[in-house]
Amino acid sequence: MTLPTSATGISTPKRALPHGDSQRGFTLWELLIVVAIVAITISMVQLSVGLSDETRDLKKVGKGLGKLFHLLNQEAVFESRNYAVSVQDQGFIVLEYNEGEWTQSGQSFFSKIKMTESQRSELIIEDKIIDIAPKDPPQPHILILSSGEMTPFEWRISDRLTQSGIVLQGNILGGVLMTGPEPLG
Prior knowledge:
Layout: H1 5-8, H2 28-52, H3 56-79, E1 83-88, E2 91-98, E3 101-104, E4 119-125, E5 128-129, E6 142-144, E7 153-159, E8 164-170, E9 176-183
Antiparallel strand pairs: 1-2, 1-6, 2-3, 4-5, 4-7, 7-8, 8-9
């Protein structure tokens, strides 16, 4: 009778496995092939997701305009200035009230937000569609006052290429909410 190793404290030599039955791991080549396949799959998924996001420009414009209204509201309150946004078919102009008249603001940040050629605007104030044809001098449409108040509005921006659109809604307290992009219907 043989006692187990743990009982005797004496270890018995292990039998060598016959040739071909040995335990082995993956070779370096096998690991490299698996890593390459995984890397190619991940890059293809990332590429397809990036190309399918056709509304990226529309989102960028919407987020930029949201930040613009927030900045103008803060600027108006802290600097005791009155601003306005003149909406145009393919963009906007920021106006500042100086000495009894509205003049175009000279701050370069405001001109960094650009709409593409395929994007169009529609402005609704008090349930009325506003004529946004360019005029000289530019008409103030959305007022941003030093009291913190803003003209409530709905600014719809549509993109003919992607057949989608966003809606910016501003309230009297200066808040702006963007919805979309959603397919045009």
